[in-house]
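Hi R.,

Here's the chain you asked about this morning:
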Amino acid sequence: MRQSETSADGRLQRHGAGDSRVGLKWALPVAGDLDWALLAQYGLRTGSAELRPQRRAYSLGATVAGETATGRGFSVFSGYARDDTGRGWQLAPSLEWHAGDAFGSYVEAVLGSGNERGLRAGGGMTWQPRSTVQLDVSLLRGIGGDAPDWTGGVGLSVGLR
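And the predicted structure, written out as tokens:
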């Protein structure tokens, strides 16, 4: 992914590839109609040297998800992250739509504190070609606080049983 940074006074500009992350998500036993999962991520210093943090980032979080009576999915993610800029919390509710068995889309809002500060909103699309494989893309726009102007991502999830 591409990353750009500009200082508050506009004098310093840095561009290049952003870092990657690898994560492990553990689906917990179902509690009624809700699904629960824990997510741990670890930053890989794969980005451009001038944008690369001095130490690796990591995060821990939990998700609860379910389905409305009309078949729309919903979820709420809460997580803690730490990197060179400090630490912070995120809260991210989302609403999902499914188009058949393989495709979906979602909208979400992300509210953060500390190094995750600010408010972002956006959405994404998912494709699940097999029951254990999912690809997704997302795009979020910073709309409040010190949130980045734009944040995007591409993800690959592989389920292990």
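Residues 11 and 27 are 46 Å apart (CA to CA).

Let me know if you need anything else.
M.
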